[in-house]
Amino acid sequence: MAEPRTEPEEAPAVLVRLPTVLTILFPGSSPRVELRAGTVAEAIDGLNQRWPGMGDRIRDSSPAIRRHINIFVDGRKARLETRLAPGMEVFVLTAISGG
Asked: How confident is the model at residue 10 (pLDDT cuts 50, 70, 90)?
Protein backbone atom coordinates (compact mmCIF):
# COMPACT_ATOMS: atom_id res chain seq x y z
CA MET A 1 0.00 0.00 0.00
CA ALA A 2 1.39 3.41 -0.99
CA GLU A 3 2.11 6.15 1.55
CA PRO A 4 -0.42 9.03 1.47
CA ARG A 5 0.95 12.17 -0.12
CA THR A 6 1.31 15.16 2.17
CA GLU A 7 1.06 17.74 -0.60
CA PRO A 8 -0.72 17.61 -3.96
CA GLU A 9 1.97 16.54 -6.45
CA GLU A 10 0.49 18.51 -9.35
CA ALA A 11 -0.03 21.70 -7.32
CA PRO A 12 2.32 24.67 -7.75
CA ALA A 13 4.99 25.58 -5.21
CA VAL A 14 4.03 28.71 -3.29
CA LEU A 15 5.62 30.63 -0.43
CA VAL A 16 3.52 31.08 2.70
CA ARG A 17 4.52 33.79 5.17
CA LEU A 18 3.28 33.39 8.72
CA PRO A 19 3.05 35.97 11.53
CA THR A 20 5.24 35.60 14.60
CA VAL A 21 2.18 35.33 16.86
CA LEU A 22 1.32 32.12 15.03
CA THR A 23 4.80 30.60 14.68
CA ILE A 24 5.54 30.95 18.42
CA LEU A 25 2.60 28.63 19.12
CA PHE A 26 4.12 25.85 16.99
CA PRO A 27 7.72 24.97 17.92
CA GLY A 28 9.81 24.24 14.86
CA SER A 29 7.60 26.25 12.53
CA SER A 30 9.04 28.93 10.30
CA PRO A 31 7.82 32.38 9.24
CA ARG A 32 8.48 31.34 5.61
CA VAL A 33 7.22 28.02 4.32
CA GLU A 34 7.35 26.71 0.77
CA LEU A 35 4.72 24.13 -0.07
CA ARG A 36 2.61 22.84 -2.91
CA ALA A 37 -1.00 23.97 -2.97
CA GLY A 38 -3.56 24.76 -5.67
CA THR A 39 -5.78 26.87 -3.40
CA VAL A 40 -5.51 28.79 -0.13
CA ALA A 41 -7.47 25.96 1.57
CA GLU A 42 -4.87 23.43 0.35
CA ALA A 43 -2.08 25.68 1.65
CA ILE A 44 -3.73 25.73 5.09
CA ASP A 45 -4.07 21.94 4.91
CA GLY A 46 -0.35 21.72 4.12
CA LEU A 47 0.52 23.89 7.11
CA ASN A 48 -1.71 21.76 9.32
CA GLN A 49 0.02 18.58 8.13
CA ARG A 50 3.40 20.01 9.08
CA TRP A 51 2.23 21.53 12.36
CA PRO A 52 -0.98 19.86 13.59
CA GLY A 53 -3.42 22.40 14.98
CA MET A 54 -2.16 25.33 12.89
CA GLY A 55 -5.08 24.96 10.48
CA ASP A 56 -7.52 25.42 13.36
CA ARG A 57 -5.83 28.71 14.25
CA ILE A 58 -6.34 29.99 10.70
CA ARG A 59 -9.80 28.71 9.79
CA ASP A 60 -12.90 27.78 11.73
CA SER A 61 -15.14 24.73 11.44
CA SER A 62 -17.58 26.26 8.90
CA PRO A 63 -14.93 26.25 7.15
CA ALA A 64 -14.00 29.89 6.74
CA ILE A 65 -10.97 32.01 7.49
CA ARG A 66 -11.19 33.07 11.13
CA ARG A 67 -12.56 36.52 11.87
CA HIS A 68 -9.27 38.01 13.08
CA ILE A 69 -7.11 36.44 10.37
CA ASN A 70 -6.56 37.93 6.93
CA ILE A 71 -4.95 36.12 4.03
CA PHE A 72 -3.48 37.93 1.05
CA VAL A 73 -2.19 36.36 -2.15
CA ASP A 74 0.21 38.57 -4.07
CA GLY A 75 -1.22 41.65 -2.36
CA ARG A 76 -4.92 40.84 -2.82
CA LYS A 77 -7.27 39.68 -0.08
CA ALA A 78 -7.96 35.99 -0.55
CA ARG A 79 -10.57 33.40 0.37
CA LEU A 80 -10.20 29.67 0.94
CA GLU A 81 -11.08 28.94 -2.69
CA THR A 82 -8.58 31.47 -4.12
CA ARG A 83 -6.46 29.66 -6.73
CA LEU A 84 -2.68 29.68 -6.44
CA ALA A 85 -0.10 29.70 -9.23
CA PRO A 86 3.61 28.83 -9.12
CA GLY A 87 5.69 31.34 -7.19
CA MET A 88 2.79 33.17 -5.58
CA GLU A 89 3.19 34.50 -2.05
CA VAL A 90 0.51 33.81 0.53
CA PHE A 91 0.55 36.11 3.56
CA VAL A 92 -1.29 35.06 6.71
CA LEU A 93 -1.83 38.13 8.89
CA THR A 94 -3.50 38.63 12.23
CA ALA A 95 -5.86 41.58 12.58
CA ILE A 96 -5.02 44.18 15.20
CA SER A 97 -7.91 45.52 17.22
CA GLY A 98 -8.24 47.84 20.12
CA GLY A 99 -8.99 51.39 20.88
From this structure: low
For residues 11 and 84, give the distance between their C-alpha atoms in angstroms, rounded to a whole number. 8
Residue 95 pLDDT: 81
Q: Half-sphere exposure (CA, 13 Å, Cβ side) for 94?
A: 9
Distance CA(55)–CA(76), nearest Å, equals 21
What's phi and psi for 72, nearest 5 deg? Answer: -120, 140
Q: How far is it, in rounded angstroms, from Cα 14 to Cα 95?
A: 23
Query: Which of 24, 13, 79, 15 is CA-nearest to residue 54?
Result: 24
Entry pTM:
0.85
| Calpha distance 53→26 (Å, rounded) | 9
- Chain centroid offset of residue 95 CA: 16
Identify the pLDDT of residue 4: 45
Report d(CA 71, CA 17) in Å as an integer.
10
Q: What are the backbone angles phi and psi of residue 40, rounded to the nearest 5°?
A: -60, -40
